[in-house]
Hints:
The protein has helices at residues 18-29, 39-42, 50-60, 67-84, 95-104, 117-126, 149-158, 173-182, 215-226, and strands spanning 5-8, 15-16, 90-91, 108-112, 135-137, 166-170, 186-189, 205-207. It is of the alpha/beta class.
Amino acid sequence: MTAPIIVFDLDGTLVDTAPDLMASLNHSLAMDGLSVSDHAELLRYVGMGGKVMIERAYAAKQRVLSDERLKELLDVFLEHYTNGMPGESKPYAGVVDALDRFEAAGYLTAVCTNKFEVMSVTLLTGLGLHERFRAICGQDTFAFRKPDPRHLLETIARAGGDPSRAVMVGDSETDIRTAQAAGIPVVAVDFGYTDRHVREFEPSHIISHYDELTVDLADRLIAAAAGRPIKTA
Length: 233
């Protein structure tokens, strides 16, 4: 039987990248005299990659943004962000212990993110986590990305997993809708990058710390999704 798999989003789920995202976003926005004022404001922009972050920031400031200018700003953002990695970014508390638990239990692990693949690999390598994952798939890995469920399904396939024995972990509506569309149970962290509480999107389960992400929980979610009897302690 194929090993079960747990798939993680990256920014706001596995790694707290907010300080570096905000620094790079402000660096690019400064070219037009704009800025993101604080972490709360940043939460309104993240979730779909640098391009969407810039677009949302300009829309919030009611500033017109041409396609040409967007490309220029995105290039500036990506250069600044890439050159600074891993910067101040760091895994959330309990992430490494959680990865250890799932590895010991025979789970495959993977990352499905709307960050560019090379940036994701660079970040995770800089944090010493790259080799923990069977696959790291970004917004440019395939011809589609979250919330398209194929992004998640193809990430699972690349990692050698089976969608019927999979769990997704994410922090946003995008992650939750992706997993739901793929028919995969999803655990939402409530400390990530969203300005609406994840409970509004009805994930399968919500955690507030990685200590709560147990193998037993994942097993139960997979069994429930498959309609199998759920083991009791």
